[in-house]
Description:
The structure is a homodimer of 137-residue chains.
Chain A: H1 2-10, H2 17-28, H3 35-45, H4 51-64, E1 68-70, E2 78-80, E3 87-91, E4 97-102, E5 109-110, E6 116-127, H5 129-134
Parallel strand pairs in A: 3-6
Antiparallel strand pairs in A: 1-2, 3-4
The complex binds manganese (II) ion (2 copies) and zinc ion (ZN) (2 copies).
The first copy, chain A, binds a DNA duplex (30 and 30 nucleotides) through residues 14, 16, 18-19, 34-36, 48-53, 55-56, 74-77.
Amino acid sequence: MNEIIIELTKNNIKPSIHRIKILEYLRDNRTHPTVDEIYLNLKEGCPTLSRATVYNTLSLFVQSGIVRPLTIEDREIRYDYNTEDHGHFKCEQCGFLSDFEVNVAQLKYEGLEHHEITNKDVYFRGVCNKCLGNKKS
Amino acid sequence: MNEIIIELTKNNIKPSIHRIKILEYLRDNRTHPTVDEIYLNLKEGCPTLSRATVYNTLSLFVQSGIVRPLTIEDREIRYDYNTEDHGHFKCEQCGFLSDFEVNVAQLKYEGLEHHEITNKDVYFRGVCNKCLGNKKS
DNA sequence: TTATAAAATTAGAATTAATCTAAATTGAAA
DNA sequence: TTTCAATTTAGATTAATTCTAATTTTATAA
Ligand SMILES: [Mn+2]
Ligand SMILES: [Mn+2]
Ligand SMILES: [Zn+2]
Ligand SMILES: [Zn+2]
């Protein structure tokens, strides 16, 4: 809780109660939750919470670089507290979105001379081991 | 035109006039167009065309693997006729979505043992050279 | 403390990409 | 021609996100 306040303050974000709760939720739930997941879960302990606040707050966090937005889904954005270098795998069967190790920073590329690159994402898709195991072939 | 029909037939897709036009449009416009871009452009030469047909057809193409859907945008899907190994860069300033060279296939990763991977995407974001050049700093 | 201004939050309306639905059209057999 | 499945269609529906304008909270100054 205290670390969350420090992190917000360090990033020039005033640590309001909602901002603390939302960042805390992301820190403690590494499932890459959607806006609605965050909203519905926090609403229980804070019935006055508005969806707009969750949207506003997450935009603020993304701008400050303390959380990362994931656009691997077609329709809705997911949010990741882990901004370290790692890839994301989406199982097309069960929908689960998992992390995997990949060295994106060292990835060699060409054709972006004189571009400023602020963000790199690696998205894989397929079927996870669990879903493959369940399949009676 | 003829090659398009051959490509569709090879993938067990009956080459209806709309399917031909849509695939032709993707082949000739490598700007990663959205559904609406495709729809509005083709509607001129084919006023009866429906949005639903564009959606249906693109889903069909994606399933067959002859076009690739890009989810680099938050809100809408873009489509790429080029299914070869390459990365995508989105300029946050002008919105342009460009290709770049990157060897995704040879990318080393860990943590997806016994997963079936059907698709790999590399998305970079930032500011393109053109936008950087325009900026009077 | 009290007054004032700025920042944060709110509910609900508006927007819009994508999906769904049920009817109409087309095209290939029989 | 008749029949049946595949394709296409317009418009309704869904749902994530954004917008708006009002309200509440917090900070600052007198
Ligand atoms: Mn992650
Ligand atoms: Mn491309
Ligand atoms: Zn799975
Ligand atoms: Zn640009």
